[in-house]
Amino acid sequence: FFHESVGSDGLNLPRLIINQLKWLDRIVDSKDLVSTIMQIIYVSPLSIQHDIITSLPEILEDSQHSEVARDLSSLLKEKTELTVPILDALSSLNLDLELLSEIRRSIMVTVAAVRVEDLPVVVRFILNSIKTTDAVEVISDLRKKLNLDSCISFPRIQASQSKLRSHSQGSLSANQVNISQDSVKLLFEVIKSAIQFQKTILEAWVKAIENVASASEHKVLDLIVLLIICATNVKNQKQIERVLRNKIRSGCMQEQLLQNAFRHHSQVMRDLFPALLSVAEFFLHAVDPCVVSFGSCMYKQAYATFDSYCQQEIVGALVTHACGGNDTEVDVSLDVLVDLVYEYTSSVVPYAVFLKSILDYVDNLSPRQIRKLFHILSILAFSQEPRSSHIQDDMHMVIRKQLSSTIAKYKCTGIIGAVTMVGSMAARRSKENGHLLERAPLKKEQCKQITSLLELVCSCCQQVPQALALYYDELASLVQKGNLDLQILDWIENSVVKDFEADFVTEFPHSDDSVSILPVKALYSLEDEESEGMIVLNLLPLLSQSYLSMDKAADLSKEKRLVSPVCLSPFFRLLRFCVSEINNGNLEEIDALLGCPLYLTDLPEEGKLGSLSNQERELLCSLLFYTLNWFREVVNAFCQQEDPEMKGRVLARLQNITELQCLLEKYLAASPGYVPPPANFDSETLEEVPVVSTVDPTKKNSKGKKRKKPDSSKNSSTDNSQWDENTEANQPEAETSQPEKDSKESESGAPLVQLQNYSAYFCELDFEVFTILHNGLLTKSVLDTEMHTKTREVVQIGPAELLFLLEDLCRKLEHLLIPTSIKRPPFLKGKGSRNAEFSHLCQRSSQEVIECTIQLLKPLCNHMENMHNFFQALLAENHGVVDAPGVNIQEHQVMSSCYQRLLQVFNLLFAWSGFSQHENHSLLKTGLQVLAHRLKPGEKELPLEELLRHSFQYLQNFQHSVPSIYCALSLTQLLLVIAEKSATSLKNDKIASITKQFLCQSWIEPTGVRPKGRQFNDALHTLFCIYLKHTDNVLKAIEDISSIGIPELIHSSKDGYSSTYPTLTRQTFPIFFRVMMAQLEGSVRSIPAGRSSDSSEVQLEKLLHWNMAVRDFHILVNLVKVFDSRPVLNVCLKYGRLFLETFLKLGMPLLDCSFKKHREDVQSLLKTLQLSTRQLHHMCGHSKIHQDTGLTGHVPLLKKTLEQFVYRVKAMLALNHCQEAFWVGVLKNRDLQGEEILSQASQESREEEEASMLPREDPAEEEGDSESDSKTDTRDSDEDSSD
Asked: Which DSSP string do the residues of 1169-1225 spell out, in sequence order?
């Protein structure tokens, strides 16, 4: 009967019998009935057990629910196959909370071992049995036990094994995989339902996920649950996006987790597609690169996993981002589209119509973004023929229209688009559908199509030098990639590059038939002697011709082809890349250009510039810009040549650059309003952009401290403010070498400009130039005509050349590695102006630049050790005296600037946020190994923590040789970057000791003057903040400085300083005071509020902490009597109020519950605080008397806080039954020194005197006296806690 429950007639008799027991009207002996049923359950087959258990809620009376629930719970432990019916039955029983919690705990133990098919029921029961009080704990336990990876991977392993055995078993196991996936999907439906309808569970899930501290503990479950909350609860969407962003930023949620979610739970993720799109869009608007990268990964994974409908939506969303206008958002969306086009070319082609719509917004794109856009369209147009022929036609039409435009921006766009399209048409290798394919050689028709397009571009740009220069520059970048078909490369060399010699190279000596404004002379030759027939760069005659072409030489320009010196550098760049590509890197064909002279003119000294006309001065400035750009491009070309003679010549050209830059600064100072010729030819720089002209110092100072606006001469345009803002971004670069510039200016008596403001007008140095840093001592052989060595001289990279390279390296790393949000341009500022001098660099990824920089670490370490040794030897030689008579001031300043730049390079490298991403960990370890091996040579593979420890120790050794506070700050920041990457925070004490050493060091410049000014103050402020942040006891550190350093300063002379803290002077006191007040207020906020449940020891510890804080506050506030400057008063009023507010919020609850046990401590604390609040009241009176609006703005809020403090003390006394100790007196207004304000004294001369502190027998009364005086005259005085 049991084993054949279904008879021949199809009736299930056991189920019919069980159904008769449901909903009985009357049960004679219910206890016996239940006992019998439970016995039947234990002996019945599984199917009947299932039917009986599910029917129990309809059979039992309410009084029997608890007893049966316990029996079912024990049965569940014995027979897990009955999990589903038992939990269904338990869910329908009326159980008290304690029993329900007990059953839930017993079930929770078995979650990890439950079958996948039963998981949804188990989780539903657990979620439905949660109480509000323990929700977070239960959810945290549940998420730990739910291992979805094993649910998916184990059936797949079984399926793969069974395929090896037989086909029938294989199909069975494949079915198991489908069952597992369906079960997991049901599980998430259960979670979704619970989250949607139970707010407690939603909040508990979020809190449980927030409490997970490490990446290894996070699961795919966490990510999916957060997405479910986003999808089901619109109100919580912002909160979830914030949680996700913080998790990604801290490195807890990595892209690997996202990839696993798409790989193993694609069905679940597909249902969450709208939420995915929303979150990805939010991430692309984020500031942090790691968050933006996570968002782009979401788009790519979703495209790869989902169906065509989702793919279309993703492409549409990315197109929306690309047209949005936010620079970072546009860049990231285009990068994602590039990746999608490479990996899934065939599937993206149908959506090309969406991508073409971005062309309508091309006005909002920077040149770099235009390149990416045309690159995407070109790949689609020429990789999937004939499906994509319509894209080709559209691109041709757009490009021809833009090339024929007379507007510079559109012509620039056409040039970039045409060259980019040529790159795709003539590529030797192309990546399609994730595979790198070798293409067949081009056919004749294809070659003709490509060459005709290039000829069209060239003809459209022929009469526009800047457009032609951009064409050469773009073509050079294309050739540099090394992917052009050889037929096209030969055509470029034969038809374009052959014109270089005819346009720019001539022979020595100079012929008299050419036009020139100034006398022509061949200069800067690196050859042994000038001989007839030697090639010379024809610079000055070409420049003179361009100056005269507007009037006298207008007829000449019609007869001859227009040749402009603007094209010189980009034309040579194209030439050298073509020669290098065809000859496998060998540049022997053009190496004569490295040492050949230039036709310039005798460059007059600074004093003779006044005798020249304005046109001649501007001509000289332009001549120097062209010469410098030529030398920079020559260094770019030959920096990687291995021949020693070539290396020597490259170093000589570097020396020429540094010398000419010094000369150019003087020339620019004498030519206000001068606009240099362009050197970067992107669309934003095609228009004239004026630079900030120099103003003579005497004129600046003639109107006191009022800042004079930049000169807006007739050569300036309305865009001056934009350029001024752009140059301010580079200001830190100029600040470090400011002492050197100041000394030059004082010596010469003439103002100097900073060339960093003109950086957009110099040719960009390639990153390969920094391989020069590898060179140590080099031997240059000067050969005679018989190839015999005539003389030998040693050439070494000098300090000025080293500084030049390090400054450029710093600018490049700053631009590429620091997030754009930190240096976001002002509203409506040109998008590309920040990228104007980095157009070539921006074509590289951050990872490529990091790899190249890590390869430079060894020579950079060598140079930094040389700096360390130089300053150590200098101190030893002069017996520790920095400003000894024999010190070379200029050399000291240059070496100090080099030292700081080196530290900045290290800082920029290791502070890169990309190291937090898993795929870049190997790069970080490679960089740290270089530093660690300097300390421990020969060590092989070390774990990350060991590398960080050795690197920190290596860099720490430089602390004794830093020559300036700026270097000290850079070193400290570098050590912080290294320390923050460590999982252990054991280096806080070392950071604190190093910064304290720097604060206790007497910084003196080699001129004998103590540094001062805004830069010094900023550096000191940052160092002091770092010290107090990392010291063990902030309150003790503040007390030491305020009780030792400041009294020493008070008793010193007018220009004196503290002997313990030499950086503490009367000029720097406001900095120390501000930092100490801010850190004091911040430290007391970290003291937990007092609770009545705290033990007496805990209360006493908190009281001691507050006692020390109040004592420090009292010392600092009373310093205002000595240092009463406006900045000090402002800081005291601001942070005094904040300190009191924190005391009211956190300190007074402590006094409430500890007054009876620790009455004397509380009384002492309030007495000290009363003196401070009285002084704060005096400051309020002082502010009113002097009618200083900057100070009186703080007074109302401070007075309000002081009044709250009075009544809060009264409430504390009332709580402890000491109301009689609170009394009120009259408080008079006084000045900072405590003297009575006379205007009030005359009115109140006969009124009651200020209440004094009278001793009382009752300590509680004495406490009340000291705290509770308040004022009755609301007109001239305010309530205060001090009297």
From this structure: HHHHHHHHHHHHHHHHHHT-HHHHTTHHHHHHHHHHHHHHHHHHHHHTT-GGG----
Work out the number of other CB atoms within 10 angstroms of the CB of residue 343: 17
758: tokens are 């003109």
C-alpha 551/C-alpha 517 separation (Å) is: 14
Tokens of 717: 């345009």
Q: Using a pLDDT cut of 70, give the percent of the chain over it.
A: 78
Q: Residue 55: is its pLDDT beyond 60?
A: yes
* CA quadruple 934, 935, 936, 939: dihedral sign: negative
In which residue are the tokens 């509020």 written? 1089
**DSSP letter string, 562-609:** P--GGGHHHHHHHHHHHHHHHTTT--GGGTHHHH--EEE-----GGGG
Among 654, 643, 538, 645, residue whose Cα is nearest residue 596: 538
Render 730-755 in DSSP notation, one character per residue: THHHHHHTHHHHHHHHHHH-S----G
Q: Computed from CA positions of residues 420, 424, 427, 430, in that sequence, does the dihedral angle turn out positive or negative? A: positive
pTM above 0.70, yes or no: yes
- For the chain, report the end-to-end CA distance as a whole number of angstroms: 96
The encoded tokens of residue 1041 equal 């400085």
DSSP letters of 666-711? HHHHTSTT--PPPS--SGGGSS----PPP--HHHHHTTTTPPPPPP
Return d(Cα 1117, Cα 93) in angstroms, integer.
68
Tell me how far apart the alpha carbons of residues 426 and 441 are, in angstroms, rounded to a whole number: 9
Q: How many residues does the chain have?
A: 1283
**For residue 701, with 0-12 CB atoms within 10 Å meaning exposed, 13-18 middle and 19 or more buried, which class applies?**
exposed
| Angstrom distance (rounded) from CA 626 to CA 571 | 13
- Number of H helices and E strands in the chain, helices first, is 58, 8
Nearest to 1046 by CA among 1031, 1057, 1034: 1057
Contact in structure between 1283 and 1227 (CB atoms under 8 Å): yes
Axis-axis angle for helices 30-43, 65-78 (nearest 10): 10
**pLDDT of 1176 over the 70 cut:** yes
The answer to whether the beta carbons of residues 904 and 811 sit under 8 Å apart is no
Cβ within 8 Å of residue 1054, ≥6 positions away: 1066
32: Cβ contacts below 8 Å, ≥ 6 apart: none
Nearest residue to 130 (alpha-carbon basis) of 188, 201, 76, 191: 201
Q: Which of 813, 822, 899 lies closest to 854 in space, CA to CA?
A: 813
Position 1156 confidence tier, pLDDT thresholds 50, 70, 90: confident
What are 722-742's pLDDT values in tens digits? 333 333 333 333 334 444 444
Single-letter amino acid code for the residue at 166 = S
Distance CA 1145, CA 1154 (A): 15
Q: Could you give the CA distance from residue 415 to residue 456 in angstroms, rounded to a whole number?
A: 10
| Res. 1157 pLDDT band, cuts 50 70 90 | confident
How are beta strands 777-783 and 598-600 bridged, if at all?
unpaired
Cβ partners under 8 Å of residue 47, min gap 6: 5
Q: For residues 659 and 973, give the distance between their C-alpha atoms in angstroms, rounded to a whole number.
A: 33
Listed in order, strand segments (DSSP E) in 187-263 are: none
DSSP assignment, residue 1041? I
DSSP line for 444-478: HHHHHHHHHHHHHHHHHHTT-HHHHHHHHHHHHHH
